[in-house]
Amino acid sequence: MNTVLIVEDEKMIRQGIKMMIQRSGVPVAAILECNNGQSAYEILQSQKIDVMFTDIRMPKMDGIELVSAIQELPHKPLIVAVSGYDDFSYAVEMLRGGVREYILKPVERDKVKTILETFQRELIQREAQEEELKSIGKNQLKYVMTSDVTRKEMQMVAEWFDGMTVSKDYYILCTQRQEGAEASGEEFMYWRDIEKSSVYIIMGTEKDRFLKEELSGCHTGISKRYQGVEYLKAAYKEAKAARKEAFCTGRYEVSFEEIRTDTDKPNTEKMRQIAQQIGTSRIEESLASIRQIVKDTKRKKYSAVTFEEDILSLIDLIVGIYQNVMQQVTQEAERFKDIYSFPDIDSFTEEFTGWLMEFHDRLDEEFDDYKNKQKMQEAIGFIQENFDKDLNMAVVSNHVSMNYSLFSYVFKQYTGRNFVNYLKEFRIEEAKKLLAQTEMRVVEISKRVGYENEKHFMKIFRNVCGVSPTEYRKNMHAANNM
Question: Where does the record place the Response regulatory domain (predicted)?
């Protein structure tokens, strides 16, 4: 438990109860002391007390009056009455007034320990229940803000939150997603992520302080001032629209009353032009166009709505044009559709244009690779048509108009073998077909597959096949006659 209050006019008894609490084994963050009911009531009005031990007969305000006054407070402690009188009428009156335990002086240490252990279990259970109720309540408010709610549902939520923040004057604030766990207090409620933004409901009197102390440096949209849960959805829409305006103009605080409500025609043709330029040498021109649109948006030439429509349209066009060439473009582009997940328009623009430039470079590489593949296919076709001639890599690389060294590298990457081995293996495969299917002499086959020197051909054949051309023919005929 956090705080225990001891209300007793006799100092020695106060000190004795305090010592018993400290030695009880129940963790207590703070123990406060008062010598009369009036001082205790003032403390109870200003802070939350978990457990209170109170005497009955005291100056200024006695225990019975104190317990009665406590019933009007929003936070009521668990109360233990301490009395020197074994008077049944006192006990009954105190228990009716909300006292949980009634103990006699002299106070026994074991009795204090047992009471504190019982109260500790109850406080833990109560705290868990309160947190669960808070969570349920917050989910209800989120539902009201983001969904179409029936009149009956609205009435139920209004009854739930009667007397709380949303039943008083409030604003809704919408800003970039904040770090840390969600929290709520007496003056505010906080959702870390509603539709990619952090959302706050702030009591009207706390708005300026909260913006200054908690959201300084954040681009925040502010709704008009409202009272009642029935206006939550309207207030949320206003705060969200103002947040977009803050994002696009670079301002840290924008109220709904300040934003543009008129609409512009989207730059549809311009977006098509930019999308087409991404894959060409005019990439810098397309990036400059995007930056100009951003500049005009910051100057309010275009509304936040138009900017959002243009960017989403551009992303869809890029995906549509290039997804067959670069399949990962769809996944990569998806994060830029969450425009307002970025801190501001400048951060978004920097990352978006950087990605477009990187994407352009990869497109260039992919296109170069495509052209190289075409050249390799042409080279292989040329080899298969001319393998019987005096053929070398210089002849083939010239035929496909490719640098000799680059051709050597790309050919090996494409076929898995260098040029010499590929040509040799292809010629030997053709020789094997002729040996098996014809009665041509070995010298004739040698020339037919591109070897003028018969002995050189026979040596290469043996190295590749493990036998001479004649032995290979003999083996093939034997296999066919079995």
Answer: 3-120
